[in-house]
Amino acid sequence: MVAAASPEVPRPLVEQLAPAGRMLLPLGERQDQVLTLVRLVAGRPVGKPIVGARFVPLLGTFGFDA
Fold first, then answer.
1. I want to staple 21 with a disulfide (CB 3.0 to 4.6 A). Which of 7, 17, 47, 63 is the partner?
2. Are 4 and 58 in contact (CB under 8 A)?
3. For residue range 1-38, what is the model confidence (pLDDT) as tens digits?
4. Is 40 exposed, middle or buried (0-12, 13-18, 19+ CB in 10 A)?
């Protein structure tokens, strides 16, 4: 479970995801996200939208500008 929103799945988190692992994270705009279940398919992240959400933004290189 990632507790900060990002515009897309951060590459460093994908690199840590086990082949059969799952990651739940909020994806989308700074003020409007969708809680998304991500798993690897053929080595690439594939997301399944679950429900609308609003989390604090992830800031920095793999998130939003400060």
1. 17
2. yes
3. 999 999 999 999 999 999 899 999 999 999 999 999 99
4. middle
In the chain, % helix, strand, coil (3-state, to 5) comes to 10, 45, 45
Q: Taking CA 12 as the corner, what is the angle to CA 18 and CA 53, rounded to the nearest 5 degrees?
A: 90
CA 32 to chain centre: 13
Structure tokens at 59: 């800031």
Q: Which two tokens stand for residue 11?
A: 């590459």
